[in-house]
């Protein structure tokens, strides 16, 4: 259900495996996030992601549990890569399955918001301009706040 | 002996991502640990910032939290997300 | 960019091909819709989908153009199956790629709403209770209406 | 000769999904075509329903729309979606 590892991610293979695992449920939404070739800091050579195990995994598991509590899902999967990556490499793959497509869309979206803002990863970009550690962007907080507004008590 | 972990930009500040050392007797809390290490690394306050959270044995703690031999203590700057 | 055919759909392979085609863009959202094993009419043996070519294809192409006009995308793909399908078979695969994940999520969601409501397909269920042609569900209209409310002039 | 296509449940009403035939001289519009076919199939109004749209040569038309030899005319009940 959740993997954090330095192994490359093959999104197509991950989607196939997920669809096989969950059986015949109606709709599956997947999200693939890849390393961008350019950032505001320059042309990216390497993206380095650090996790703190098992705290990182525990945080993702809690987010998965929260997502499953909130939407009626038949499956949920997170694969997150750490270590050194090149532009175009897949950093994260999320998939959600549900009988109703709206639930699958919202669950995948919500989980991605968690992963992009609150998940315990530190990120370093090596660009043609130098090396920089990336800390949160204001817009990430805003997107996460979208959900907080409709949070159940 | 405690195990210290420095994440994100703090690994640059510390010049390493982890180390094992014996704390002086005067360092018994996370607050004292921050100050002692900040001086030791000449970090100019980088380890004192409130946005830098400390985890003791894989649990985020609030200053001052006791530290003792055998602890794993992590210095965590704001997370950058996945 | 758009295919309507009686060939089986392999969502994992389709996602891999799409990701290869679009190059290094940031985020990719996919949706896979599969034949449900049960419907309100009974236990499903066969789902039959009819299209009217080239009107069906033209409608989907227009929806794709509308989606691309509305969100800044680096790629968009629709594969729709017609003919006879069994439960668990993939009926539709949609993928959207964008620099920002919100755009990819919204574009895929919007396009699915079109496909589920306004796309020109006729659908027949063969269940253990008999044979029934499926016509629109009120909730499908509602989901589509979500977008109309925020439609640009 | 015109080519007639019956989609969705109308293929059950017509007992076929398509046919080629020569229209009587009295049938010159989609409105007249609906009435004539509805009687011919004893469809009890199924072809007259306003939610059943007609397409002439792959374009949705509004009644009454002229029909003539060579046209492909499709009877389209509400679409069920993909």
In words, what does this structure look like?
The complex is a heterotetramer, with 2 copies of chain A (153 residues) and 2 copies of chain B (82 residues). Chain A is an alpha+beta fold and 153 residues long. Chain A has one domain: Aldehyde Oxidoreductase, domain 3 (Alpha-Beta Complex), CATH 3.90.1170. Helix content of chain A is 37%, strand content 36%. In chain A, helix 2 packs antiparallel against helix 3 and helix 3 crosses helix 4. The longest helix of chain A has 17 residues. Chain A is elongated. With 82 residues, chain B is α+β, with helices and mostly antiparallel strands. Chain B has a single domain, classed as Beta-grasp domain (Ubiquitin-like (UB roll), Roll). Chain B has 2 helices and 5 strands; from the N terminus they run βαβαβββ. A 5-stranded mixed β-sheet of chain B has the order 2-1-5-3-4. The radius of gyration of chain B is 12 Å and the shape is globular. The mean pLDDT of chain B is 96. Classes of the chains: A alpha+beta (153), B alpha+beta (82). Chains in contact: A-B, A-C, C-D. The interface between A and C is large, with 36 and 36 residues.
In short:
The complex is a heterotetramer, with 2 copies of chain A (153 residues) and 2 copies of chain B (82 residues). Chain A is an alpha+beta fold and 153 residues long.
How many discrete domains of chain B? 1
**Strands of the biggest beta sheet of chain B: in what spatial order?**
2-1-5-3-4
Radius of gyration of chain B: 12 Å
The percentage of residues in β strands of chain B lies in: 25-35%
What would the average pLDDT of chain A be, to the nearest integer? 90
**Biggest sheet character of chain A:** 5 strands, antiparallel
Quote the beta fraction of chain A. Answer: 35-45%
Assembly level: heterotetramer
């Amino acid at each position: 259900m959740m993997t954090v590892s330095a192994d490359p991610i093959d999104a197509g293979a991950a989607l196939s495996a997920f669809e096989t695992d969950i059986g015949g449920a109606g709709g599956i939404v997947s999200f693939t996030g890849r390393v961008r070739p350019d950032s505001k800091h320059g042309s990216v050579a390497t993206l380095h992601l650090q996790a703190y195990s098992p705290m990182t995994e525990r945080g993702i598991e809690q987010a998965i549990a929260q997502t499953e509590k909130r939407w009626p899902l038949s499956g949920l999967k997170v694969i997150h890569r750490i270590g050194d990556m090149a532009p175009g490499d897949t950093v994260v793959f999320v998939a959600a399955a549900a009988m109703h497509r709206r639930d699958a869309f919202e669950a995948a979206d919500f989980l991605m918001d968690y992963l992009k803002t609150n998940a315990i990863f530190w990120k370093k970009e090596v660009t043609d301009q130098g090396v920089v550690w990336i800390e949160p962007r204001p817009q990430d907080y805003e997107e996460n706040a979208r959900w907080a507004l409709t949070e159940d008590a | 002996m405690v195990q210290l972990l420095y994440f994100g930009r703090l690994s640059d500040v510390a010049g390493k991502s982890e180390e094992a050392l014996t704390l002086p007797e005067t360092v018994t809390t996370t607050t004292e640990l921050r100050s002692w290490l900040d001086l030791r690394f000449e970090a100019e306050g980088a380890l004192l910032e409130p946005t830098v959270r400390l985890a003791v044995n894989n649990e985020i703690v609030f200053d001052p939290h006791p530290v003792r031999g055998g602890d794993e203590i992590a210095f965590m700057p704001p997370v950058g997300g996945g």
